[in-house]
Design goal:
- By secondary structure, the chain is of the alpha/beta class.
- It has twelve helices and 20 strands.
- The strands form five sheets. Strands 6-5-4-1-16-17 form a six-stranded mixed beta sheet.
Length: about 375
């Protein structure tokens, strides 16, 4: 049984003034061709299907086109929601889609979504866990002690009654860490150590019952803790921190129990995302761009000591899609040193609130008040996202 593992499509995403709909359509068409040439049986889409909880009309249309193409190729689809998705919107039409083997798990409702498909070696059990927060799982299991995201996921899996003698696959969207090491974050969500995009990390050993775990949320393709627990990464670069990455999709072949083959299939975008650095004369010389795709999205760093008058407009005559123009010279380095000193003095939201609390009450917060405030700030951040 062959599966194509996708995640973090972020349909509808824009970067500054640039709408990426043509880039997303192009890469999804390439993915369809890979699904056909590699003869996959099913497609796993591990969340963050849309970039916003209220997706644009164009984003919804792109997803509609993609799903229809998968159905026309008689491929089964197993799709879950991520932290960027709206449960209700992604769930729209899911009952109708079921008739065409498009299985959408958008909202956790007390148990894992579970489907069984057969191949020459017997049954393959596919479980879908949409993005969950501790509060959602608490409602399903009010007697359980659930305080963290990891508590929530462990509680969900404990009630799933998974037969470890079978071949089990899980599709999930969480921040998973492995063997004392966090995954490489790349452009993922603007992360902190404990959180990625307001999502707390959980240990990879939650997933011992599964032969393969198809993860979404981290934008860099990689295994976590074990080869069978994997982030496939985004199909496109969505940040200049990802400029050096080779984007890909993951094809997973599940054979007899204990036999697993994983392959990365590289993707070639319509327009790449690149960083260019040099003087204005170097960047605009023919030798600098004649063998490159000048339509790529570029971040240009000029090292000239003096700013180039109308620099962005002049650069557009060669590079029509410049996303950012920066300078790296004596002046900017001095400014960065000053800014760096100021950054050290900055405080977290919680630290500012603690100071305000003490000012208002003439006493510091106790541990219970601090924990409550920390949880409240996190919930506000999740709503803002």
């Amino acid at each position: 049984m062959k599966f194509l593992h996708l995640a973090d499509l972020h349909l509808g995403k824009t970067l500054g003034d640039f709408d990426l709909k043509d880039d997303q359509r192009y890469i999804l068409q390439q993915i369809l061709e890979i699904a056909e040439t590699k003869q996959v049986d099913a497609v796993l889409i591990a969340g963050d299907v849309f970039d916003k909880t209220v997706p644009s009309e164009g984003a919804v249309q792109i997803l509609d086109e993609f799903i229809c193409e998968l159905v026309e190729r008689h491929l089964q689809v197993y799709m879950i929601s991520g932290n960027h998705d709206s449960d209700e919107r992604l769930n729209f039409g899911s009952s109708l889609f079921e008739a065409n083997d498009v299985h959408i798990a958008a909202k956790y409702q007390g148990k894992l979504f579970h489907h069984v498909i057969e191949d020459a070696y017997g049954a393959v059990h596919i479980y879908q866990l949409p993005f969950v927060k501790a509060s959602q799982v608490k409602r399903a299991f009010p007697e359980a002690k659930i305080e963290t995201y990891e508590d929530a996921v462990r509680e969900v899996l404990a009630h799933a009654e998974i037969n470890q003698k079978q071949r089990n696959i899980l599709v999930a969207h969480q921040f998973v860490s492995g063997k004392g090491k966090d995954p490489t974050l790349g452009g993922s969500e603007g992360a902190l150590t404990q959180h990625v995009g307001t999502v707390e990390k959980i240990g990879y050993d939650c997933f011992d019952a599964f032969r393969y775990v198809a993860l979404g949320h981290i934008h860099s393709p990689q295994n976590v803790g074990s080869e069978h627990i994997r982030y496939c990464g985004t199909p496109l670069k969505y940040s200049f921190s990802e400029a050096g990455q080779q984007k890909s999709v993951t094809v997973v072949e599940i054979l007899e129990k204990g036999n697993l083959k994983i392959r990365e299939i590289p993707l070639k975008p319509l327009r790449d995302m690149r960083k260019l650095k040099g003087t204005y004369m170097e960047i605009t010389s023919l030798s600098s761009y004649q063998d490159t795709n000048t339509e790529d999205y570029v971040q240009i760093t000029l090292t000239d000591e003096e700013d180039i008058v109308d620099g962005m407009q002049k650069l557009r005559t060669i590079y029509p899609n410049p996303m950012r123009l920066e300078y790296d010279n004596r002046r900017t380095r001095e400014n960065q040193q000053i800014a760096g000193t100021e950054t050290v003095k900055r405080k977290s939201e919680l630290e500012y609130f603690e100071e305000f609390f003490e000012l208002q009450n003439n006493q510091p917060m106790n541990e219970e008040q601090r924990k409550y405030s920390e949880d409240l700030i996190r919930k506000i951040q999740e709503v803002k996202q």
